[in-house]
């Protein structure tokens, strides 16, 4: 399916990470929460850095658009 995108689990203790991610949004309204998500996405995309991989991410996520 993918040349570079790893879709198998890579995060140690994913439930703890998810809980921390949800906690990060506590007390934010929807605009603030969306802004935080954008910042997270851009920071993680910058960390990945590889445009081919990032394009693969966009193509995979595009399938889930409502």
Detailed description of the structure:
This protein has 66 residues and is mainly α. It is globular. The protein has 3 helices and no strands. It has one domain.
Computed over alpha carbons, the radius of gyration is 14 Å
- The figure for the number of domains is 1
Largest sheet: none
Regions with pLDDT < 50 over 5+ consecutive residues?
Answer: none
* Extended strand count: 0
Mean pLDDT figure? 94
> What spatial form do the alpha-carbon principal axes imply?
globular
Summarize this structure briefly.
The chain is mostly helical and 66 residues long.
Helix and strand arrangement:
Blueprint: H1 14-24, H2 30-48, H3 51-62
Labels describing this entry:
66 residues, mainly alpha, 3 helices, globular
